[in-house]
Design brief:
Strand content of chain B: 25-35%
Structural class of chain B: alpha/beta
Strand order of the largest sheet of chain A: 3-4-5-6
Order of helices and strands of chain A: EEEHEEEH
Largest interface: A-B, 26 and 25 residues
Distance between the termini of chain B: 43 Å
Radius of gyration of chain A: 14 Å
Number of strands of chain A: 6
Number of helices of chain B: 11
Structural class of chain A: alpha+beta
Number of helices of chain A: 2
Oligomer: heterodimer
Shape of chain A: globular
Distance between the termini of chain A: 7 Å
Strand content of chain A: 25-35%
Shape of chain B: globular
Number of strands of chain B: 18
Chain lengths: 100, 417
């Protein structure tokens, strides 16, 4: 069981959350090229290791949150709100975190 | 190399089974091959076999990071079927099923292919209508199907929960030519048959990088040294993007874990493959007697070859809803395999934009049944530099062109396929 430390509700089981996929993808502008749109919809980085991803706390506060999780070990590296700078949290040596 | 037959069996029986030679060689890698296939699983071994058999290309190496057949070909629920609806999938999987039907003779290796039928259960009038439509589409494409009434299903599988208050069984859709095969034997059979035709099977040989000359891929760096190649084909389900990243090729692929389960051994009980129509659960019985079953993905990107408990609970709940007798059984073991989940749920067998590099990926749940067809088509694509008639639609650029093959209609969300 993966446990995620929801920034709004505290630590909860993964069964309360819905997985939203890669959290580093940025929606292109309306005038972006077809290649940029294709990458946005279909292309994924799919790393073997740290992965920033979106989860929605559907059985809790219903907020979307950002999670940095290792896809090989399931270690939760950092958790933040959608507005938080998750990259800075990953880089923070004192970040703590909840392990799988 | 011994030809396997009743005579060789008799001869070796008289000799106390001490005279069997090894099934394939263990060669040192050569400096150069015409074709290198990366990945010694079912698809990689089948590709090497059909390169040699159909195209006369025998200066071939299969490079395997671990041991032959140690990945997903040994980690699945052994189901073989071709009950698809959409162009792209129908012709490919039916071609693969036809290869299955002659495979044991072709390989001189008993893959224990058993056409015991695959039955999808329907739990509402609406679902029966949908199955009638799907069955008709299969028949239009030359694939066998039979719509079964409730009584016909009951005759075949009396142990199902027909009176279930939430999920009563209305009938089902059967593909009589579907069934199961012995998964390890498929890997071993292709390995032995490829080796017999001169293919070098090289184990404990991990590909760590690619050699490029003017953009073209001309070889691979491995843990057993540099090996040059005319062409390089990737058949490394689960780890595809880790390799393509090294040549700057981005793919519409996510890696997810799919779990499978085996119960303790039972006397013969389930003599078909049966799937639950009100969720996602599929079950069959192995020749050893264990019930082999599985369900959904865990649902998040992962490279860990192990699953998580919430999904196990979900699978067991669905199984018991369909077959209440399962609740009395003990689980013998379970395991997880890493799937290349593509963005439309269908596979990719194609050349890449990089000269000399060929791609076989995106098998989602469907890799095992595709093994012979995948090898056949990938060998054709590598040998002729163009897809065969059976994989013309399974192209890498179909996403950019808007020609996705989304059997389930769930959009570019890998966990939902």
């Amino acid at each position: 069981m993966i446990r995620l430390d929801c920034p709004h509700c505290g630590p909860r089981d993964q069964t309360e959350f819905n997985y939203g996929g890669d959290g580093r993808i940025e929606r292109p502008g309306d005038d972006a090229s077809l290649t940029a749109w294709n990458d946005f919809v279909y292309t994924r980085d799919n790393p073997r290791g740290p992965h920033v991803e979106l989860w929605q706390h559907t059985a809790g506060c219903r907020q979307w949150i950002k999670v940095a999780r290792d896809t090989l070990t399931h270690e939760i590296i950092a958790v933040g709100t959608m507005g938080d700078d998750i990259e800075a949290k990953i880089a923070d040596p004192d970040r703590g975190g909840v392990e799988a | 190399m011994t030809h396997y037959s009743v005579f060789s069996l008799l001869k070796n029986t008289l000799g106390g089974h001490k005279g069997w030679p090894r099934a394939w060689r263990d060669p040192e890698p050569k400096a150069r091959y015409d074709v290198i296939v990366v990945g010694g699983g079912g698809h990689g071994l089948a590709t090497a076999y059909y390169l040699a058999k159909n195209h006369g290309i025998t200066n071939v190496a299969v490079l395997e990071r671990g041991y032959l057949g140690g990945g997903n070909v040994g980690r699945n629920t052994t189901i073989v079927r071709s009950n698809y609806e959409l162009p792209g999938n129908t012709e490919f999987y039916e071609h693969s099923l036809k290869l299955w039907e002659g495979l044991s003779q072709d390989l001189n290796y008993n893959v224990m292919f058993s056409q015991r039928s695959v039955i999808n259960l329907a739990h509402s009038d609406g679902q029966m209508d949908a199955y009638a439509r799907r069955g008709n589409r299969m028949r239009i494409n030359g694939i066998d199907s039979e719509l079964l009434s409730r009584d016909e299903v009951r005759e075949k599988a009396p142990y199902l929960s027909f009176e279930n208050a939430r999920f009563p069984i209305y009938g089902g859709l059967s593909q009589p030519r579907g069934g199961t095969a012995r998964h390890d034997a498929v890997a071993w059979g292709f390995a032995r048959a490829a080796d017999l035709r001169g293919v070098d099977l090289i184990q404990n040989c991990e590909v760590t990088g690619f050699i490029r000359e003017g953009g073209r891929v001309t070889g691979v760096e491995t843990t057993r040294g540099t090996i040059m190649a005319g062409k390089v084909g990737l058949a490394v389900a689960g780890s595809t993007t880790e390799l393509t990243r090294k040549v700057g090729l981005d793919l519409p692929i996510e890696s997810h874990v799919l779990q499978a389960f085996v119960s303790e051994g039972l006397k013969p009980m389930i003599d078909q493959v049966i799937t639950f129509g009100a969720g996602h659960f599929y079950i069959s019985q192995s020749d050893k007697g264990g019930l082999v079953f599985g369900g959904d993905l865990d649902g998040y990107n992962t490279y860990a070859q192990r699953g998580n408990l919430p999904l196990i609970e979900d699978v067991m709940t669905e199984g018991v809803a369909m077959i209440p007798a399962l609740s009395r059984l003990r689980l013998l073991r379970h395991w997880g395999g890493i799937m290349d989940m593509s963005m439309d749920g269908s596979p990719i067998i194609d050349k890449t934009p990089i000269d000399g590099l060929y791609l076989n990926t995106g098998w989602c749940y469907g890799g095992f049944k595709a093994t012979p067809g995948s090898g056949w088509c990938f060998a054709h694509t590598i040998a002729r530099d163009e897809p065969s008639p059976y994989n013309t639609r399974l192209r890498l650029d179909r996403f950019a062109r808007g020609h996705t093959i989304d059997e389930k209609g769930s959009g570019p969300v890998p966990k939902k396929h």
